[in-house]
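Re: the multi-chain job from yesterday

Posting the exact lines I submitted so nobody has to dig through the queue logs.
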Amino acid sequence: MKNYDKLIFELSKPGRKAYNLPALDVEDKALESLIPAEYLTDKELNFPEVSEVDVIRHYTNLSDKNYGLDTGFYPLGSCTMKYNPKINEDVVKYDGFANVHPYQSECCVQGSLEVMYGLEKSLAEIGGMDRVTLQPAAGAHGEITGIMLIKAYHEKNGDFKRNKIIVPDSAHGTNPATATMAGYEIIEIKSTENGLVDLEALKAAVGEDTAGLMLTNPNTVGIYDRGVKEISRIVHEAGGLLYYDGANTNAIMGHARPGDMGFDVVHFNLHKTFSTPHGGGGPGSGPVGCKDFLVEFLPVPMVGKKEDNTFFLDYNFPNSIGKVKDFYGHFGILLRAYTYILTMGSDGLKKATEMAVLNANYIKEKLKDYYYLPIDNIVKHEVVFGGLKDTLSEVTTLDIAKRLLDKGYHPPTIYFPLIIHEALMIEPTESESKETIDAFIDAMIEIAKEAKENPELVKSAPNNTLVRRPDETKAAKNPILKYEG
Amino acid sequence: MYPYIPNTPQDEKEMLQAIGLDSVDQLFDDIPKDVHLTKPLNIPESKSELEVTNYLSSLANKNCSVSEMTNFLGAGAYDHYIPSVINAITSRSEFYTSYTPYQPEISQGTLQYIFEYQTLIANLTGMDLANASLYDGGTAITEAALMACAHSKKDEIIVSTGVKPEARQILKTYAHQQHLKVVEVETKDGVTDAQALEALVSDNTAAVIVQNPNFFGVLEDLKGLGEIAHKGKKTSFVASVNPISLAILKKPGELDVDIVVGDGQPLGIPLQFGGPYLGFMATKKDYMRKLPGRIIGETTDLDGKRSFVLTLAAREQHIRREKATSNICSNQGLNALAATVYMVTMGKEGLKEVATQCAKKAHYAFNELTKSGKYKPLFDKPFFMEFALTSETSVEKVNNALLDAKIIGGYDLGKDYPQYKNASLYAITEKRTKEEIDKLCEVLEGVK
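And the result, structure tokens for all chains:
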């Protein structure tokens, strides 16, 4: 149904139902005789009444209004929109995994604990870390967990004057928010023209009040910062620790490890690098790895292995920061990531990185005559352009993104990183074939030509989507956040 | 070749040529030699799908699932029935393989179901508005506390020990970072001690947090506790609730609760060893611009068509950066979809029937289990679907006997509350039958 525009509430009709429960098989006593009336509501639930057919048709029609990875190319920079293997979705539905209660006794959950143990080992190896907590629910959640480890370390040393976290201006937006949440002040340092950390600025910024530095490498411009060892030396000599934002791990697997570069703490985004679905915004998973000297601070529980090869939940971390999440993390996401790692193996992970990097450099090469390339270096997994090469054009990055919708593509990330004017951040991942990428390149070149020959066409885009540039100002000014009937 | 990597050696060659390189290795020349890995990662080599599924099936088979056993364990994660429609919808890859709806033109599916989700949660809790979801019930409590601190510009949080122990641990972990003070108010006879709370609430109190039904399954007097909480200046009264219970219990919105949070797992999300679940949050209007996480709003497009967008983004971390009160920049999208489909599938009557059956079966079980006097109620207080019993025998011993009869026993309260030694918390959902409850009773009676 092409123009389907109903809300589920608008389908409701008294008397319809989509559920069927077994009849009550215990004595049917009045609710008021079991629970005192003052606790019970006399109000009807304001929920729709629909049939099962209504439910299925409605949400199937809604799904048709979505563009997913299985629909087509999704080069959303910094998000690593790689293919979500179907085996992952099958495995999480195995009865033994899907229907296990987190508080069952250890003897009954050995399989789940073994998955967690195996995943921890694999992530530690990939990141060059000693141990990894699987508890954080998302990348941002991993960030704050990692910063808490750094804080716990300084506090244990009695070093309470370290109240600042250094964040380069090219950092992911969550980095400063995270450090603030952890009670730190932020020192933002400028990048060099090449988007790298300015070592002089860093030297000037570090001191006795430095708790740590948050960095991603390759950085958000997609460039590997060769100065990283020097960066780590400067920060470590000042007594600070180094935090690695693992959002860009897909650029280095099998080629380099944050641990070897001098980082002390790393978070991984399982929904990026390790193929778990983005789910329209979640649930994700953001495990955090650390070096030996920080292990004592990890949140509890960790999964341990006994001499008899059985697994257990290990709460024996007296200096632990505590807990950052209910239970043990997003087990269903952990399992998908582990399935991916088992499938790809050391060879496949390395190959994935290589093809992701090859694809990004190929796009860079093919588009740099049409789009402004602020930094012409070998890139890693993504490339950032600064709008059209014709900088006088009135066509903006937003217009280009909207025009890509007409051509059937999910646009790249736009206006990030903030240090690149009119940024278009393209991350193809290894999942795409040369044909797909060539077609995308052609579409981008076509848009650049249209911008020259018929700028109105681009500026008025999109023209063939279901809705066109919904009014965000109106939505924020007079918020309608629920259906009022 | 690998199934998920389509480039052929010929493609590679052509692409390298276009870039002006001879080999893929040259793409990594920018990584200095001293950190460039020279040997493979110490991870087994790639495997076929069949080998991987065989191995993972063998691990799954090492677990004992709640479908092979009869489960009476709850304590924050509940074994409710999940209708087939939910998996049918959440398995649609247009939903699960998409990301944050940054481009509303091609994300109306996600945006609309979240708008429906926000409406359902607001209606269920009786509150003005809800966000697009948070990580889980435990972290949602912490987010509520942080929001209350930002709202009141105060730094003391009072939390009842009737709140789930893990959630209180998370709260303390976060509070430590920002030097916020967490004060626990004890329970008395299974409910939050109102007198003790009254003595603690002051003008420094940013939030009073309780859980209903509380961790012992007992119903709290939300109205009375709220009145005490509101004696503080600008103090937020926060309630963490079981969403199923709201089909029959008075809604937090009727009881002057300011911030309602909870775990949406009972709404159609499998137990899956603790996650991913779904944190929900609903508030009064005053909190709208401080709400953490995402929010979806209704608007119109260029042609005047109803459409949905991410809104009130000024609250979000990517704008506020160093002024942030939360760093959450995602939501539990797919689980919010599951909960949405569950709520509309059960609908107005179905959710009430689920809640009613849970309550009636739980009370039947309570009566049967306490009949002989061998197991005594820990508290003599009204409950919804979970209750605690004590006996002369350790919970470990009782649960081992139950395990032998393929029954998963209750949660050992003594682990978190040393004063409640030998106390076990049983949860009864609509899935349990009279026969299963009678069997539980029989096995428990036989424990020596």
